[in-house]
Design brief:
Elements: H1 3-25, E1 32-35, H2 42-58, E2 64-66, H3 73-80, E3 88-93, H4 99-105, E4 117-127, E5 129-133, H5 141-150, E6 156-159, H6 167-177, E7 182-185, H7 189-198, E8 203-206, H8 208-217, E9 220-225, E10 251-259, H9 264-278, H10 281-289, E11 297-298, H11 299-320
Family: Belongs to the UPF0065 (bug) family.
Protein name: Tripartite tricarboxylate transporter substrate binding protein
Keywords: Signal
């Protein structure tokens, strides 16, 4: 009579032990790191040195897979549905919190919800820059906005797709400044940057990593940033907030996520691995060379950051409204 409850109790007791054993053996094979955009964008720029650091630590391959499409929705959703065994991770960008809210605005079922992810570690959280070619006629933000008011819809900017990580900050600006710029969406930050380099568009929002080589070469210049304060190394660049747009605060962050069902011991093993990699001088040099500052957070600190930033982004999307 007592056999079935006894077996159930033994199985329940064995589950944490099995998870701890699995974490102790982890990883036994390659761990895939998904980037939901093409090569060359912020997610890719951060993912590759992190993956290289994990390979050195784990002695296992960590391939970076660029699974682009729908402003990041396709790649993000693929990780949300992946096996929760620690072997599929997402290098997520700030836009991942925007996409479900945008889907609801458009009247469709979101491909995923943020609750389907377990946040593991934040690596970068960079204020975004407003970038133009060096040959552009505007030397200041005010000159650009004045021109945009004279020529509504005539000045094109590129982005990583509707409601993507490079579109939301621009939409924040155009909404706050009440100007009409021509939005030209691409499949990711890499193609959006190529469009600016080739002259297809005249401005874009970008994190520092992808644009740093072009700032150093003199091909681009920065008119403003979406940070709360001026940025070290760019002290001459004003913030949009100080120029009269208090709601225009935006960060392109990049962090590691696992599927939400990943057992706690595995999540802790992943967190410890990320913390070790963050201390790796090779990783720090690689990020710095790409123009990214390490801003490492994990555990409660990352979760608190994520809650606050998600709330700010959801409010921004609701202000921007429906985009066909």
């Amino acid at each position: 009579m007592h056999r079935r409850p006894l077996l159930a109790a033994l199985a329940a007791a064995a589950t944490p032990l099995a998870a701890r054993a699995q974490a102790g053996d982890f990883p036994a094979r390659a761990v895939t790191m998904v980037v939901s955009f093409p090569p060359g964008g912020q997610g890719d720029v951060v993912a590759r040195p992190v993956a290289a650091g994990l390979e050195r630590l784990w002695k296992q391959p960590v391939p970076v897979v660029n699974r682009a499409g729908a402003a990041g929705e396709i790649g993000n959703a693929s990780v949300a549905r992946a096996a929760a065994d620690g072997h599929t991770l997402l290098m997520g960008l700030s836009s991942m919190a925007v996409i479900p809210e945008a889907a609801k605005l458009l009247g469709r079922q979101p491909a995923y919800e943020m609750e389907q992810f377990a946040p593991i570690a934040l690596f970068t959280a960079d204020p975004t820059f407003l970038v133009v070619p060096a040959a552009a006629p505007w030397q200041t933000l005010e000159a650009l906005l004045e021109d945009a008011r004279r020529r509504p819809g005539a000045i094109p900017y590129s982005s990583s797709g509707n409601y993507g990580a490079l579109h939301v900050p621009m939409a924040m600006l155009t909404t706050a400044a009440q100007v009409n710029l021509l939005h030209v969406p691409f499949q990711g930050g890499g193609p959006a940057l190529t469009a600016l380099l080739s002259g297809q568009v005249q401005l874009m929002a970008s994190g520092p990593g992808p644009i740093t080589p072009h700032l150093r070469s003199g091909a681009f210049r920065v008119l403003a940033s979406w940070g709360a304060t001026r940025i070290a190394g760019f002290e001459q660049v004003p913030t949009l907030m100080e120029r009269g747009f208090p709601e225009a605060e935006y960060y392109i962050w990049a962090g590691i996520f696992a599927p939400a069902g990943t057992p706690a011991p595995l999540r802790e093993a992943l967190r410890q691995a990320m913390a070790t990699v963050a201390r790796d001088p090779d990783l720090q040099r690689a990020l710095a060379a790409g123009g990214n500052a390490l801003d490492y957070r994990d555990g409660a600190a990352f979760e608190e950051f994520l809650r606050a930033d998600t709330a700010r982004l959801v409010r921004a999307v609701q202000r921007i409204g429906k985009i066909e």
